[in-house]
Design a protein that fits this description.
This protein is of the alpha+beta class. Helices cover 22% and strands 24% of the residues. It contains 4 helices and 10 strands. The strands form 3 sheets. It has a 6-stranded antiparallel sheet with strand order 3-4-8-7-6-5, with helices on one face. It has a two-stranded antiparallel ribbon with strand order 1-2. Strand 5 and strand 6 form a beta hairpin. It is elongated and about 95 Å long.
Length: 249
Amino acid sequence: MSKPRMMKVPFLLATLIMATGLSGCGMFFGDDGIFRDRGHDYRKAKLRRPLKIPAGVKVGNVNDSYPVPGLETYRVLAGEFDVPRPDLLISDAQLGSVRIQKLDDARWILSRGTPGEVWPRLRGYLTVEGIPLARTDAVRAVLETSWHKPKDAAVPQERYQLRIERGVQRGSSEIYIKHADRRSPDYWPQVSSNIEREERMVRRLAQYLADTEAASSVSMVAQRASGDDGKISLEEGRNFSFLRLELPM
């Protein structure tokens, strides 16, 4: 008498289950057998013409399984449509015209106004704070203070570098601040010698710019040097147009 072979069927079924489960072929098991997973079929859907019903067939029994509203009356609008320009990053009056931006360890002040408009306000801030000014470079839009001893903190002598750059969008400016103290071996370090002092200056300057926005004037020298364009511009090439992005990686 031959040996019973009933154990081979469960073994083959278990092997098939493991193979389909590990291979990721998109199959699943139901009560009636194995079915293809149709959960992502919608990605392959295409827009087609409406179904034409032959004469004599009742339309009530024929309809789309997943109708998309509005496609039955789809038509191309006459004329051309101009895509509106996006709003400025700081166009919301409720949020204010001055913001402190952060990215990783870097921070800067984003202000509404061209570099030529922001330039005299930075000089006004240094005057109000009683911080002596050592050097100005209107072409590069850089201000450097002299060494001074702060009265409100037990820190060594320090100085600051304030640099204005055009913002990403037209009519905006970015102000970068760097701090240095007597312990720094470099003329101007790559990063601030004291991050807390830099953050304090950023906050105080941002508040001053927000308070004095209405009374701002324009420095014509810095205005000519920096211009009104943003860091993103559309330029025309010989055979194509391209976007120029003056942004770091």
